[in-house]
Every structure is written in structure tokens, then in C-alpha cells.
């Protein structure tokens, strides 16, 4: 019997900008299953988003003290207050980076932290970037925000402020019609403030998801991965 070979992965199409002008708690679930693609000198590095966290802008009440935008615009966080669907990259511990996607209209400063990816292209190069062997498990490459930035070779100096929907951008968000049927919603992790907010979204039981396995949350079943399932609250514009 002839062996069945998996088809070569295609990177789909660029996502559209209108989706991102919505509140972060509505966009963060929609990014699950989408592709983060980095076009490098060494080839394409890409992963499917399996974990996100939403961070609310300073216009919300009572505010989100865990968000970088909480105290207003600064030279460090200026990208957050600009247009939607741009990369906001910041450093942690002086050696690692975290990558966020801006959302909402200019000035509102919502964003989504990309916490984990399932690698789909360039795994060998990702392992090299992480200092691991070529046979390293996918979860060791991109499990956690710092690891995924290291695997995809993302830095603040090069990638902060890039338009993720520009066809000419080396860093893009793409959609290959991957179907997400259910997600898990939990509190955010790795922060000290506003820890009670249920703003972390994951694909259930995915091995590349970061954080403690004991952390449980609500499982939401979806009929389709559509922006229409996550309409912004009507009262939000008046807050």
C-alpha cells in the first residue's frame, strides 16, 4: 500500500486590517490557528498561533495595570498607540523578547501577546536559533513568548513597529483556513497585576501551549472561527 505523504504546507493569505480594529479580548481568540510568518535570509520561519493573551488599553475601566499602555504613551510603547496590526516587540530580563500585535483604532492601545506557536516551517533553523539539536521537539522551540521570539529570530531593534499586513513586510500574520472548533479561556499568567482577568486563550491540550498544565479554564465551542462570533460590547465605546 502506498504511503500517504502530507501535502507541502502553504502559508495562506495575509489577514485583513478591518478585523484588528476591535477590542483585544475579541481579537485574541481569533488569532488562534492563524500563522505568524517571518521571511528571513535563511528561509521562512513560521508557526501556528496556539496561545494568546489580551491586554486592554488605558481607555477601559477600571483599566489593565498589567498592560504596557496603562500609564499612557512613552517612547518605549509608542507603537501601541498607533494603527492596528503592527508588531510591538519589547525586551524582558535584558536578553529575551516578547511580540505583541496592536489592535483597536489609533490611540486606544489594545494589544495581544503571542504566547506560543506550533512550528510549521523552518523547524531546523528554529532549533539552531534556540541552540537546540535538529531533532528537538516542536514544543521546545516555540512554547512561551520568549522562546518563540528566539526561534523566529525576532528582536525589538529590527521588528518593532513592522506592519504585519504589508505584503512587503518580512513579518506577517497569515490565514490558511485552519479550523478552530474550541478554545480554552483562563486567567493570564506570568504577571503581577490584574491577574484575575480571563484574558488568556489557548487551543485545548495543545503540547506547545505554555504555562502550568494544572491551570484550567472555561472551554468554548465555536461554530466557525469568525469575527462575527466576537462582536465588541456595545457599551465599550462609551467607557
Can you describe this structure?
By secondary structure, the protein is an alpha+beta fold. Strands 1, 2, 3, 4, 5, 6, 7, 8, 9 and 10 form a ten-stranded antiparallel beta sheet that branches. β2 and β3 form a beta hairpin. The protein starts with 12 loop residues before the first strand and ends in an 18-residue tail after the last strand. The N terminus and C terminus are likely disordered.
Q: What percent strand?
A: 25-35%
> CATH class, anyone?
Alpha Beta
CATH-scheme architecture: Roll
Q: What would you call the shape?
A: globular
By CATH's scheme, which homologous superfamily applies? Methylpurine-DNA glycosylase (MPG)
Q: How many helical stretches?
A: 5
The H-and-E topology, N to C, reads as EHEEEEEHHHHEEEE
Q: How many structurally independent domains? A: 1
**Average predicted local confidence, pLDDT:** 87
- Classify the secondary structure makeup into a structural class: alpha+beta
Q: Fraction of residues in helices?
A: 10-25%
How far from one another are the termini? 63 Å
Strand tally: 10
Largest sheet: 10 strands, antiparallel
CATH topology: 3-methyladenine DNA Glycosylase, Chain A
Low-confidence stretches: 1-7, 224-239
> What is Rg?
17 Å
Amino acid at each position: 500500500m502506498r504511503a500517504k505523504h502530507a501535502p507541502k504546507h502553504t502559508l495562506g493569505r495575509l489577514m485583513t486590517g478591518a478585523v484588528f480594529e476591535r477590542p483585544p479580548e475579541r481579537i485574541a481568540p481569533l488569532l488562534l490557528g492563524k500563522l505568524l510568518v517571518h521571511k528571513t535570509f535563511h528561509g521562512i520561519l513560521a508557526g501556528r498561533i496556539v496561545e494568546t493573551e489580551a491586554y486592554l488599553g488605558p481607555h477601559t475601566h477600571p483599566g489593565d495595570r498589567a498592560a504596557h499602555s496603562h500609564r499612557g504613551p512613552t517612547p518605549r510603547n509608542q507603537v501601541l498607540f498607533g494603527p492596528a496590526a503592527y508588531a510591538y516587540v519589547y525586551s524582558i530580563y535584558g536578553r529575551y523578547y516578547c511580540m505583541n500585535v496592536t489592535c483597536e483604532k489609533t490611540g486606544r492601545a489594545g494589544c495581544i501577546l503571542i504566547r506560543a506557536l506550533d512550528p510549521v516551517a523552518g523547524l531546523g533553523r528554529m532549533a539552531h536559533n534556540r541552540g537546540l539539536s535538529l531533532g528537538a521537539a516542536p514544543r521546545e522551540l516555540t512554547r512561551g513568548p520568549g522562546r518563540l521570539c528566539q526561534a523566529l529570530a525576532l528582536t525589538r531593534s529590527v521588528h518593532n513597529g513592522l506592519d504585519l499586513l504589508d505584503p512587503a513586510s518580512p513579518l506577517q500574520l497569515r490565514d490558511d483556513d485552519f479550523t478552530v472548533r474550541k478554545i480554552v479561556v483562563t486567567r493570564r499568567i506570568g504577571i503581577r497585576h490584574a491577574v484575575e482577568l480571563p484574558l488568556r486563550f489557548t487551543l485545548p491540550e495543545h503540547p506547545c501551549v505554555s504555562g502550568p498544565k494544572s491551570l484550567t479554564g472555561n472551554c468554548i465551542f465555536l461554530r466557525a472561527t469568525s469575527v462575527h462570533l466576537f462582536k465588541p460590547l456595545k457599551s465599550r465605546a462609551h467607557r
